Structure of CN hydrolase domain-containing protein:
Amino acid sequence: MEAIGITRLCHRNLLPTSNPSLTSTFISSFVIGRTSSHNYNRNFPKFLVSATMESSFKPEEARVPVELPLPAPPVTKFKIALCQLSVTTDKERNIVHAQRAIEDAADKGAQLILLPEIWNSPYSNDSFPVYAEDIDAGGDASPSTRMLSEVSRSRKITIIGGSIPERSGDKLYNSCCVFGKDGKLLAKHRKIHLFDIDIPGKMTFKESRTLTAGERPTIVDTEVGRIGIGICYDIRFQELAAIYAARGAHLLCYPGAFNMTTGPLHWELLQRARAADCQLYVATCSPARDGGSSYVAWGHSTLVGPFGEVLMTTEHEETTLVAEIDYSVIEQRRTYLPFQKQRRGDLYQLVDVERLTCKGAK
Amino acid sequence: MEAIGITRLCHRNLLPTSNPSLTSTFISSFVIGRTSSHNYNRNFPKFLVSATMESSFKPEEARVPVELPLPAPPVTKFKIALCQLSVTTDKERNIVHAQRAIEDAADKGAQLILLPEIWNSPYSNDSFPVYAEDIDAGGDASPSTRMLSEVSRSRKITIIGGSIPERSGDKLYNSCCVFGKDGKLLAKHRKIHLFDIDIPGKMTFKESRTLTAGERPTIVDTEVGRIGIGICYDIRFQELAAIYAARGAHLLCYPGAFNMTTGPLHWELLQRARAADCQLYVATCSPARDGGSSYVAWGHSTLVGPFGEVLMTTEHEETTLVAEIDYSVIEQRRTYLPFQKQRRGDLYQLVDVERLTCKGAK
């Protein structure tokens, strides 16, 4: 074959390794100019290939910092409920309605409840400032999360509280609160990737007109396992799911309101892809469809298993789905298809910036 | 809400940026110990959140080195053919058979031909050493690639030559050769991720018993666009597709022979996921199914568009599919759904190690 040269081979590893003694590493020579060549295949002289092979692979370095082992979950099997709720312009009704759905699901044995994205308000830039609550202030300033806290404590269940518009100072966020079975707020995720899309004649929406993006990933240990949180558009970014998996997540929960264009195109595909690539459970919950609203949700709340298989899904009407999650399946799938341990850290590395830069972060 | 502290906030960016002057950066403090805390949500004091927000997002830093712009392809529209070939134990027959399929596809106007994984040999560890060819030596030492070179030159077409077992010194590889329309070898991809899986009672195969893994990604500029190459199991690793996309690929080609277990589970899902996440074309080509062989291929060669939509697919029988690719759709999709520009380089970064470490690499 034609041998195509490359100017320099510098194969030393320039990123942090799993070796704890390597607390500092010097990075150099990372900016690669475009060349006039139209061929990008590298055919190193054979002796160089042989020289590098001994030191290659490094699957443990494909995640920076190194991937954490899957933790033993507090429960192996439990029931999850996806409450696909109808949402109206009446906030008080929405809160009472959500509470009833949660209590019904708890009556059916659900230990984990997932609510939809923006369930206390219409999904519109006009509504967000009107329906927003000051979650940090709590009490009367946040009747939606007060209800979630109370019902999680009274029913001894874990709630991934979908999302509501949050007011914090002069900013608005799209925020998901997680409550433990003692009613305490365990975590709050602010949507990281704002939904700004423009498909002419089909769907245009710009959350960034009113909302501010969150600043960090959210992974939380609950009574039903370690859960990574994303809100709707966050699911498009495979890196977020991958860093949750590397932090030892058992389950990813995405409250989401895909629309009538992106829903049929991508909603199930993305859920299945995240689950199959990360080999963990993915649960999503959408508002029920309301054809009369300005933003029409696709519905189709779904639970996906760690082979990317749809375990439970619904159409677009209001309903609550209850199904069992069995975490022992995760380890089984990862044994069958061990690609979590077959990555090529010598070729690509996914950096979790928060874990890399913040001591004590996880 | 409960405010949960974090020991230290160190938000300075510790990885290379798109700023060429930043040719060295000191990395520290990357090893994160497990703590006894069961809550991993970070709620920084508000003033810190505000302070960091100004410097956050950095979508251009989500790919290290920085993502290259999509190059203008030499052609916008062209026809691709996927030759889903039957494979026998008769190597000479396999070569003649492949040549006829390629010529038929060229007669139908195809400018790019994609062949299956391991099309000149049965797919088995016993066969690989017997059917392997010395591609670098060429001529009589590699009748399969000699045929590909001759037919690409005589018909003035580009061929992604599926894969064949390659002998190089004392090693065997699973290798894909790319020929330009002048018959010259443009690139050779050696399967990077070897197929070692064990699903009891369903599918067990360990390529690593006989094969050696390739050492680098392969992206090549052809007369029909910039193409990233993966072979079969390589498709499971989203990072490879993502670094090809960041190098400006228009199309990913995966010769592959998924089996009767992983085929129905994951073959189409992975193709669609890679296409939708990277917003480019994905083409795959499998051998036709032979129920009598030790390894039974799933078939289902497919072309997927940059919305993750299946444009063309087949069942398991021998056939050649011809369809049009329109690269202008890629830019349109990326304008509609601009998530390639919405990544959070402040939260995660995907490092292309070869481009990072090798001056002149692309």
Remarks:
- Chain B touches chain A through 123 residues (CB under 8 Å).
- Chain B is about 25% helix and 25% strand.
- Residues 91-107 of chain B form the longest helix (17 residues).
